[in-house]
Amino acid sequence: MAKANEKLNRIHIALLIYMIELDVTVFALPRLVAKNIGTNGWVGLLALTCVACFNIWLFQIVYRMGKGQSFFQIVEAVVPKWCAYPFYLVLTVFWIAIGSFIGKDFILIFQTLTFQSSSSMMIFSLYCLMVYVLLVKDIYSILKAVTLFFLMTASVNLLAPFFFQDWKLIRFTTSLFQGTEGGHTLHGWTEVYTVFVGYELCLFLFPYVDKKSKLFQGMYTGQLLIGLVQQLAVWVSFGFFSFPELKVLAYPVIHTLEYIEFPFINRVENLVFPFFLFSNLVSTVLFAFAGLSCLKQMFPQARPKLLELFIVIAIFGLGYIPKLLREAEALVFHSFFVEIGVAFVLPLLLMVLLQIGKLRKKGVKA
Amino acid sequence: MKAAACWLLMLVCLAGCTDQRVLEKMGFIRTISFDVAGQDNANMLKVTISIPKSSQNESIVYTTVAHSSKQARAVFDRQNDRRLVNGQIRQILFGEALAKQGIWKHLDATMRDPSVGIHAHVVVAEGDTEKMLSRKYPQGGTAGEYIDNLLRAESATRDIPHANLHTFIRDYYDDGIEPVATILKETPSSLLIDGVALFKKDKYVARVPAADKMYFGLLRDSVDTGELNMDDIRMGKESLPVSLSYIHSRRKIRFSSVKGLTAGTPLKVTIHLRIRGSLLEFYGGEALDNAANQKKLEAGMSRYVEEKCNALIALMQQNKTDSIGIGQHVRNAMKYASWRQLEWDDTFSKADITVRADVKIKDIGKLTRS
Amino acid sequence: MKFRIAKMLLRLLAAPQSQATSSAPPSSPDDRATLERTLHELNDCMDLVHRKFPSNGMDVVYFAYLVGNDDLYRDIIQPFSNATVQEAAARLACLPYTEVQNSNVCIDGILEGMAAIFLKGKAYLIRIDEAEGRSIAQSETETVISGPHDGFVENLEQNLSVLRRRIKSSHLKTIELPVGEISKTNVVLAYLEGIANPDFVEALKERIKSVEIDSVMDANMFVQLIDENPNSVFPQFLTTERPDAVASKILGGRIAGFVDGSPSVFCSPTSFFDFFSSPDDYYQRWLLGTSLRILRLVGFLITICFTAFYVSITTFHYEMIPHTMLLNLTESRSRVPFPPLIEALLMETTIELLREAGARLPTKIGQTIGIVGGIVIGQAAVQAGFTSNILIIAVATSAIASFVIPSYIMSASLRLIRFGLIILAGVLGNLGLLMGIGFVIIHLAGITNLGTSYLTPLAPFNAGDVLDTFVRGPFWALRKRPSIVKSSNRTRNKMRR
């Protein structure tokens, strides 16, 4: 079919990045910013956005150096298979776990609002079903679905003007980065940085793009887009709540939504919160997709849909680990911390591998 | 695949049942009130809830005395034939006596429950809360609906701070402003909005009488609608009542250098009020069709507003409660660390605050002289 | 799975036949077209006429009810009845008489309404068929208020003539492809050379050639045989009975397919949003056209979600109801013995019954159904405490909203999806509702038509197309043909204004 010559388009990559990065962490984002960066934390968030862009730039260098080679091609050009496979396996398990924790955390947060007494695993099983249905599709179809999900999720931002009436610039205060809990620590800032986790998965899009699709232009656009929306969330919350209050509200973003009242509908958060299902779904699916790519590399002969099924079952199984919201959040944060490390180390590692590969080639020639 | 999906759906069907909140099987608490139980059991709490019936004009009112609101709730649950839910709470009433002791314990419990909306009004009730909720009012509807409409109508005609859960808790946490709440008073025939309760943290410390509410509104924030009723404005020799409608005000706060504040230097604050409104009540003898007379009247009104506002500020200073948010402005002018050092309540009570009002008449209505 | 097996079986069974019909092998003495052979093949057909001309020994064979008397007189009786052998042979040597060698071709010709002439061992065919059928009238399923009022009919030739009259271009190409092992229905693909993407034409041709079925009755049935996702609820080819719509689709670079015997014409490639546009949009001023498009999208949302949302709110999210509505709703629900989910499913089923009954009955009785359904059931059900009146409003609104979608087939699909969403909403509230919508979106994302995305122009995104999908832009803004057709000639409007 005509599919074969279809390549990913930079707009869709941008939307994909937006949707991967928008996950459960965003609900707590204003609190994290207030707690760890302090007053006028949006400036700090801006700086962190630049850090994320720098990280994307590292990936860009890998892409340029490798001339568009995929992750696996780069690794296997230098490292023998027996050495690379355990590495893949670890990454796979890790990414599947992240996907699972995001989903479970979302369900548990959802259960604080409604369905308090239902079994979270029942709802999670439906979530996993959605993951499976999306994961078995090819990356083009996933991206098409992501585009529609983006439209639905992004429409939530249109609610922002409703806060204007009770929004005051004076609550921002004039001091910069003050009033944190326990000063400024790397740990604290990293906690805020977790909201950006997800862009590193672009590594697995390399085989699906060409020069024309302008992958990195899309990546930067997506990063800026999500940065903008996060700024919006932080701005709304900082002007809408008082600063000390922000530090105690568990999920300020959900909390702000409660405030909106339409004549025909109240308590909009009940309707709007489920819209975030899509962004979390996309995050989970893309982490699963990264895992799937690794598995496919290791078992190229596997029956179609078998690996996907295996991954979804693993996601469901790992969902049993966090039972309490506290556990789920801790797991999400810890795994995101590791993921941030991976996001920075991986491109550096690949650069080294590429360099070694180049030297070896030279050696052969000589 | 499809079989699996069906199977899943069946399971979820079974699971979802416990969380169903089918409309007609719920008892929606419309109003909840907290009050002290009386002299003999001082630590106890009197909790009253009002649940409107679907016939619209009646409501079920339950009252009990318990240690905590959750305990009271258990008692109500045992009485009511429908499952009680918090999602439709519209007002939270606090008895005057309880409000003076502090209400944070109860607010925290309400706020923590995600099903409670943050639009619920926070009201201080003067009178017996139980009686207020169980009475019939000539205005029709249930007590809860009546209170709700009353507060909404009030805030629609007069743009003064009416406290809901969100604003109360926001200001409670904020270190530069103190929360306020509406006071509701029982009269023989109806309920009456009887001023604004000034809180210091969560304790009710002073009240602004109903007549001065508008001035308090002017001081607390910019106002977009409302009316000012002034009793005796000096205009030349005569002193007469004037009322200014559809007022529109802007508030500006200026203060002296904040440098020596931590060392104890008193703060000098000037509040500039710029008020514009239509003159719709005027019994004066002089014609208003010339600018000079209007200016005279404006000067009189400005002085009157200043006096009223100064009195209110004195009340607040006396109670060491900064209900109008001067602290927010001072905070923004200071270094964070020195603001933290500052005892703002004391500084505020000792500050030299003056109000400069600038009242202007936008138009004078249909007549030029009375 | 089942489909695949059935297809394989069909292929096995049909294999020998298809070889015989598909191509005419060079004539061998065995299958030469002869009079005896023809009469033998067509024996026991009472409508077959065998006419002999004694003056020259000519035999003419045709089906009495397929040919037109005027043509018969002009092309056969008048020229040949008094002709000598030489004269007749000379006439037959020129057009429009064509000589045939193969017996099967000859028989097929007769079956299509030609007359076969046998003279001195040679066989000739002459087309003298006459179309029987209703005359061109307005389509009953797709009506417009302003704009052309003609509609396609069952006759293929008539339909093509209507199309040719609208597009007087030598680039308008028509390819005939017979489909149906027994019925031999003609399917004609019409497209504009140089504008339609040749790859798509080839792909569609291949797809149609691969159809192996005994007969094809209608275009709506036929498209199910050639689409890429046979298990999807969504129609993947736009079918319409309006010549103006088809003409504009062809001019937009799409390929139109006519099926003989069907007034519906299918167009490809189609996207999901094509089903929400009507030719009417272009005959109105653009602001009106735009608001109609938006209205339809609102209708689409209401159709899908409204009842489900009612179920979700009344079952799980009582907080969302404004306090002014709460008591009314509770009051009206309080006498209903069922949970909202069952209540909604009952009412939705009733409405579907009404609709189906209305569709099956003649128009005059159909009105009675409307009265019985609308007044008796609607009123009485509420009074008897069977349903709440708010639900009646929800169900009725979503039923009405489903009818603003121009394509009947699409609106039927959406109504079916609604049931799924209602159940999910009854199980998991708003989350269930959105999960359902998510499933639908994931499903939509997987659908392709001739390899193009079903969700164009949203995914892949194309700003120019959005201007002609969700809004109906003014004509000066609609310069390009839709991106979905991948045309090499994209400009359609050069006016600068």
From TrEMBL, chain A:
<feature type="transmembrane region" description="Helical">
    <location>
        <begin position="331"/>
        <end position="354"/>
    </location>
</feature>
<keyword id="KW-0472">Membrane</keyword>
<feature type="transmembrane region" description="Helical">
    <location>
        <begin position="115"/>
        <end position="135"/>
    </location>
</feature>
<feature type="transmembrane region" description="Helical">
    <location>
        <begin position="306"/>
        <end position="325"/>
    </location>
</feature>
<protein>
    <submittedName>
        <fullName>GerAB/ArcD/ProY family transporter</fullName>
    </submittedName>
</protein>
<feature type="transmembrane region" description="Helical">
    <location>
        <begin position="142"/>
        <end position="164"/>
    </location>
</feature>
<feature type="transmembrane region" description="Helical">
    <location>
        <begin position="84"/>
        <end position="103"/>
    </location>
</feature>
<dbReference type="InterPro" id="IPR004761">
    <property type="entry name" value="Spore_GerAB"/>
</dbReference>
<keyword id="KW-0812">Transmembrane</keyword>
<feature type="transmembrane region" description="Helical">
    <location>
        <begin position="192"/>
        <end position="209"/>
    </location>
</feature>
<keyword id="KW-0309">Germination</keyword>
<feature type="transmembrane region" description="Helical">
    <location>
        <begin position="221"/>
        <end position="243"/>
    </location>
</feature>
<comment type="similarity">
    <text>Belongs to the amino acid-polyamine-organocation (APC) superfamily. Spore germination protein (SGP) (TC 2.A.3.9) family.</text>
</comment>
<feature type="transmembrane region" description="Helical">
    <location>
        <begin position="271"/>
        <end position="294"/>
    </location>
</feature>
<keyword id="KW-1133">Transmembrane helix</keyword>
<dbReference type="GO" id="GO:0016020">
    <property type="term" value="C:membrane"/>
</dbReference>
<feature type="transmembrane region" description="Helical">
    <location>
        <begin position="42"/>
        <end position="63"/>
    </location>
</feature>
<keyword id="KW-0813">Transport</keyword>
<dbReference type="GO" id="GO:0009847">
    <property type="term" value="P:spore germination"/>
</dbReference>
<dbReference type="Pfam" id="PF03845">
    <property type="entry name" value="Spore_permease"/>
</dbReference>
<feature type="transmembrane region" description="Helical">
    <location>
        <begin position="12"/>
        <end position="30"/>
    </location>
</feature>
TrEMBL record, chain B:
<comment type="similarity">
    <text>Belongs to the GerABKC lipoprotein family.</text>
</comment>
<dbReference type="InterPro" id="IPR008844">
    <property type="entry name" value="Spore_GerAC-like"/>
</dbReference>
<dbReference type="InterPro" id="IPR038501">
    <property type="entry name" value="Spore_GerAC_C_sf"/>
</dbReference>
<keyword id="KW-0732">Signal</keyword>
<feature type="domain" description="Spore germination protein N-terminal">
    <location>
        <begin position="19"/>
        <end position="185"/>
    </location>
</feature>
<protein>
    <submittedName>
        <fullName>Ger(X)C family spore germination protein</fullName>
    </submittedName>
</protein>
<dbReference type="Pfam" id="PF25198">
    <property type="entry name" value="Spore_GerAC_N"/>
</dbReference>
<keyword id="KW-0309">Germination</keyword>
<feature type="domain" description="Spore germination GerAC-like C-terminal">
    <location>
        <begin position="194"/>
        <end position="365"/>
    </location>
</feature>
<dbReference type="Pfam" id="PF05504">
    <property type="entry name" value="Spore_GerAC"/>
</dbReference>
<dbReference type="GO" id="GO:0016020">
    <property type="term" value="C:membrane"/>
</dbReference>
<dbReference type="InterPro" id="IPR057336">
    <property type="entry name" value="GerAC_N"/>
</dbReference>
<dbReference type="GO" id="GO:0009847">
    <property type="term" value="P:spore germination"/>
</dbReference>
<keyword id="KW-0564">Palmitate</keyword>
<dbReference type="InterPro" id="IPR046953">
    <property type="entry name" value="Spore_GerAC-like_C"/>
</dbReference>
<keyword id="KW-0472">Membrane</keyword>
<keyword id="KW-0449">Lipoprotein</keyword>
